[in-house]
Amino acid sequence: MRLKSDPVFNLSEELQDLKGKLHRHLLDQADSLPANGEDERLNRFVWEKVTQYIRTSHIAINQREIERLVKDLIDELTGFGPIDALLRDDKISDILVNGPFHIYIERNGRLEKSDLRFIDNAHLLRVIRRILAPLGRRVDESSPMVDARLPNGSRVNAVIPPLAIDGACLSIRKFRKEPLTAADLLAYGTWDDDTLALLRQAVHARCNMLVAGSTGAGKTTLLNVLSSFIGPDERLITIEDAAELNLRHPHVVRLETRPAGIEGGCEVAARDLVRNALRMRPDRIILGEIRGGEVLDMLQAMNTGHDGSMATLHANSPRDALSRLELLAGFAGYNGSENTLRQQIASSLDLIVHIGRLRDGQRRVLTVEEVVDVAEGHYVTQSLYRHEPLSRLRPKSAKLAQCSVDPILPLRGYAR
Known about the structure:
Blueprint: H1 13-27, H2 39-57, H3 63-78, H4 84-88, E1 92-98, E2 103-107, E3 110-113, H5 121-132, E4 145-149, E5 155-159, E6 169-173, H6 182-188, H7 193-204, E7 209-213, H8 219-227, E8 236-240, E9 252-256, H9 270-277, E10 284-287, H10 294-302, E11 310-314, H11 318-331, H12 338-348, E12 351-357, E13 363-375, E14 378-386, H13 398-401, E15 413-415
Parallel strand pairs: 7-11, 7-12, 8-9, 8-10, 10-11
Antiparallel strand pairs: 1-2, 1-6, 2-3, 4-5, 5-6, 12-13, 13-14, 14-15
Helix pairs in contact: 1-3, 2-3, 9-10, 11-12
């Protein structure tokens, strides 16, 4: 018996409740369940138990609803429950579970609520543990948060009670089987021909680049595409908390951090991996995300012969990115003067590429900023590209808002 998926048909509240009862009914007979891998036997077993339960309980239900119930129950017994079909859908980029009854998905850059749901919080916890078990990770009251990576590269984050008040939360960032190319970004309007030519030339010229943007803006995707411009005769070392980069390059060494164990030991941080990468004869170092003490080691690497290195950073603009680098350096224990730190950052970085997500869900390269120098203690930068609709050009100052301001000013270097 082969069951077909029906993405259009959603279960009503009454059928969701029935599915919960059937799920518990099947779990009570767990010893009789066929082993994983025996698909036909499992299908027959679930079908027989479901139809028998419906018949003896005198429940009015049609054939189509029975087929959907059986399919969902098989997914919940062997797969990842209601999110199983979402994981198989290549059009979905994010799966966000806020407790057992609220599942959101991101499709084509837009967030929408799904009609799918878990039976209860215990069911959601079982699925989370089923996801984590093959990865050698665990989540419980002593360790209620976990980050992990699925074998297909998808990133998983889970938070359970008591930290998650309204039930366990699960976030899955999916990645395309086939990474996007420069031509794809051109077709999607992420950049135009001039921006593509500029950044391709910058990579060939071995410019040190920082890709900045908010969560979900497309920083990793852009970093992937920029890395594809690197020549095949160079040795790349990537460093990430959860390996997401999928570089189409013949010579790549991939390193991944390791969180602390249950007793707090055996942690390997990004800073440790950056230091070790310097001993591995890299031509370029590609850091998935700067978020801590590794900022100092990465700046040092960029400034000591590893030209063409790249990294991403959470920031809302190029200016915010520079400020955030300073802030992270302070957290990392930097004891020098502010001016010396700014000189170090300015001499290390060549370009900051700011990518963002517009209101319609489209990802777009918003700014390409050149870091020129430091003058009188302030960064001097030059806007090489800027995408900003005139409707969004509004003075932040209340005083300036009362003045007549020409929104179409020539782009020049400016001092901050």
